[in-house]
Amino acid sequence: MQKFMISEADFTNRTLSPDLIYQCVKVLRYKINDEFIVGLNNKNYLVVIRNITDKTLIYEIKEELNIDTELDVFVTIIQGYPKGDKFEDIIKHGTQLGAAAFVPCLMKRSQFKIDEKRMNNKIERFKKIAREASEQSFRNQIPDVLPFITLNKIDLYSFDLIFVCYEEEAKHNNIKGLKETIRCLPKGAKIAFIIGPEGGIDESEIIYLKQFNNIKFISLGKRILRTEIASLYALSTISYERELE
Amino acid sequence: MQKFMISEADFTNRTLSPDLIYQCVKVLRYKINDEFIVGLNNKNYLVVIRNITDKTLIYEIKEELNIDTELDVFVTIIQGYPKGDKFEDIIKHGTQLGAAAFVPCLMKRSQFKIDEKRMNNKIERFKKIAREASEQSFRNQIPDVLPFITLNKIDLYSFDLIFVCYEEEAKHNNIKGLKETIRCLPKGAKIAFIIGPEGGIDESEIIYLKQFNNIKFISLGKRILRTEIASLYALSTISYERELE
After folding, report:
1. How far apart are CA B226 and CA A213, in angstroms?
2. How many Cβ pairs within 8 Å bridge chains A and B?
């Protein structure tokens, strides 16, 4: 069953945005009486199409659905901005795994040269990817994608706890800490993972981070993970520890 | 430090294969006295270059290194063969996360049409990807990539335990079992995850799998995961449960 995340206004009018109508008509080839799910404000409704033309679509609500797909803690991925399109994959995959927000962080070793206008376009594109991935994975919330920011501009004390994935720990087999801490997090806790770009977190950034007392350095297993995999590991373990039993 | 997985013969002759020599000379631009790591048979050696030309390279062993990067259980990913290049990403990422083997499984819902010759070429390519990912993540073992196979031809009793990731479980929030079982696996256990292609595992395949008493149906968290993410979730949780403390 297809799910669409929609706006309050479209919900009030029992319709969809023009691009979603296009998708229903041209891609999914919906007809009258076809059903889909709309999601807004953490709620989900099964709806049935009552009227559909090339440019308009009106549905009726059949029932509210009880779909619980959110992690019970808010996980922000502070990702050292990586090369190429990797950040798009990180959003796509991280959304499926329950992330609450993504921060494209311009770290020392991020190789990044684009102007402000293209940055804004990129953020719009990232937000669209987050919305589509949310729909596909039946998320109730669309993860937020924050603007590009340098590490020192992030308000790190806005998080209850921050895990810093520092690959030197992995190299020296110094493995500790993540597990017990995740288990004991209170429901609704705001946590973050800081993940370096290719080449890792710079030593000067590690020194900076060590000032904060809500920071915990962790390792993500015995192997060297590429930057685009680290957030997936982190989010999988949060789901595993807190959702499965 | 660069690591290369090499053959017994090249190790005996203190050299590398022609393609690795090319990489050392042309890509990495190594000179005499440069160092790298060679790996074979679960062992790792720091070596130093004693002689290098455009086509030849001779090194000397400096020391054996104690690098332990293997999971303590053998995890085989039986992956319903997915569309496009996704299987390559599954190998690349799964190798970083410690998989022991990958099986491209032609399941009911795999959309796959290539002839035998191209299949063999693909397996060669998959093996190369596994080797490179092993080197990058300092693995001691190169994961095996098995030939294309249908589900009913796999000897499922060759595994101690098989987890079947069945998305219907996730949809109905029926979450159970994975955690305790992973914790209790004996060291060296041979386990597998069976993951459906796009569209999931077919009901007839589920009926077939239910005959085996070494099979456990599991859910991978509360959200619908795309097929290319499921193995990453599975492997991350194995690492998390068994490697971190």
Report:
1. 37
2. 126
- Residue B18 burial class via C-beta count within 10 angstroms: exposed 0-12, middle 13-18, buried 19 and up: exposed
* Chain B residues with beta carbon closer than 8 angstroms to that of A96: 223-226, 229
Query: B28-82: per-residue pLDDT in tens?
Result: 999 999 999 999 988 999 999 999 999 999 999 999 998 888 999 999 999 999 9
β-pairing, B43-52 vs B57-65, is antiparallel
CB within 8 Å: A223 and B173: no
Q: Which of residues 135-194 of A touch B (CB under 8 A)?
A: 136-139, 173, 175-179
User: ipTM of the assembly?
Assistant: 0.85
Task: Give the global pTM.
Answer: 0.87
Q: Which chain A residues are closer than 8 Å to B96 by Cβ?
A: 223-226, 229
**pLDDT per residue over B109-145, tens digit each?**
998 777 778 888 999 999 999 999 999 888 999 999 9
| CATH superfamily of this structure's domain A3-65 | Hypothetical PUA domain-like; domain 1 (2.40.240.20)
User: What does the H/E/C string look like for chain A?
Assistant: CCEEECCHHHHHCCCCCHHHHHHHHHHCCCCCCCEEEEEECCEEEEEEEEEECCCCEEEEEEEEECCCCCCCCEEEEEEECCCCCHHHHHHHHHHHCCCCEEEEEECCCCCCCCCHHHHHHHHHHHHHHHHHHHHHCCCCCCCEECCCEEHHHCCHHHCCEEEEECHHHHHCCCCCCHHHHHHHCCCCCEEEEEECCCCCCCHHHHHHHCCCCCEEEECCCCCCCCHHHHHHHHHHHHHHHHHCC
Q: Domain B74-243 has what CATH class?
A: alpha beta
Which of A95, A233, A242, A245 to substitute to test the interface with B, most B CBs within 10 Å?
A: A233
Q: Considering only alpha carbons, which residue of chain B is nearest residue A89?
A: B229
CB-CB under 8 Å, B229 with A96: yes
Measured in angstroms, the CA of B184 and the nearest CA of chain A are apart by 14
Domain positions in chain B are 3-65, 74-243
Residues in chain B with CB shorter than 8 Å from the CB of A178 are 240, 244
| Cβ contact A223–B69 (<8 Å) | yes
* Contact yes or no for B175 and A244 at CB 8 A: yes
